[in-house]
Amino acid sequence: MIRLSVRTPSREALVNVTRLLNEALSEMGLAEGVLHVYSPHTTAGVVIQEGADPAVAEDLMLRLAELAPRNHPGYRHLEGNSDAHIKTALFGNAVTVPVVGGRLALGTWQQVFLAEFDGPRTRELWLTPLVR
Amino acid sequence: MIRLSVRTPSREALVNVTRLLNEALSEMGLAEGVLHVYSPHTTAGVVIQEGADPAVAEDLMLRLAELAPRNHPGYRHLEGNSDAHIKTALFGNAVTVPVVGGRLALGTWQQVFLAEFDGPRTRELWLTPLVR
Amino acid sequence: MIRLSVRTPSREALVNVTRLLNEALSEMGLAEGVLHVYSPHTTAGVVIQEGADPAVAEDLMLRLAELAPRNHPGYRHLEGNSDAHIKTALFGNAVTVPVVGGRLALGTWQQVFLAEFDGPRTRELWLTPLVR
Fold first, then answer.
1. pLDDT of B51-83, one tens digit each?
2. Residue numbers of the domain that contains B83
3. What is the CATH number for C74?
4. How many structural domains compose chain A?
5. How far apart are CA A109 and CA A122, in angstroms?
6. Secondary structure of chain C: what % helix, strand, coil (to 5)?
7. ipTM of this predicted complex?
8. pTM for this model (two decimals)
């Protein structure tokens, strides 16, 4: 398992980690299979989405903030970041991406993002190559 | 990696691909492990849900359309399909299904669906067999 | 594939299965790789979230009940559990966790939960070890 470190810029952000992952892949030497990308956090997840138009990420985070509001009269967790936990649960802690010829096989518009919901922080991504 | 082509019938649809996947599995020759089913799109995902009563899929798509409305005063992406991106992020781009005896080991009521949110289109699913 | 049985206590519950999974891992003998944890149900999923403060799980289930309300004038499925299907689709049917030194490599605050949305029932989790 390889551990990557990712600095996030603000409380909420989608940080494009695609290049980082491809660089790590070359070190791992996986030619064909699937890359397991895991966030060991409970207030930051991972997601695959469009990277071309940054407005897509903005619209996604805008709506997500409404689906899991920061303040809610029913929240009982005292750290004030229940919204971040909920968003992480909705996105999930891992993505799995096909690997072909030693590189991520992403669709034309796809990029991999670390989804920060309670930053800014230094986060980790844990990578495991899975063989066919 | 095997690439399947799937024609979707309308803007939003859950297309049952279970039989397609089992057919592809026989070609791949994976006896025991996990099948990785990947959507290389940003406005179509994959989901495992009930296949017996079609009303389940309808209720799911009904509520999802409310969770990610087609029109929103805050959306900035100009293609008018931000809802489709959001829905895809909520469902995710991949499912992983156990394989036993060369076939998908699904629960009694489970079927695998390609989740189209911006069709009709011809979509792809990319399959990778993962070994134990 | 190993099948675990999990008894859930109420209609909705997050049942911590982390210890069960680590015990099963020792039997499987996977030293390094990824554990695939699969729910074969359509009204119960799996999720990785904080285990330290139980209020996090409560806030998560509270908001999820609003995102997928139990009653909705548009629901057509007659069993009255459309909310459970929707919640399961949002969480997903599988989690994948890195394995290092024969144990789950979870983040400091992470635990694995079976997410029951239509209990109480006896549920199953199907485990497959995936190798690097």
1. 999 999 999 999 999 999 999 999 999 999 999
2. 2-130
3. 2.60.120.460
4. 1
5. 27
6. 25, 35, 35
7. 0.97
8. 0.98
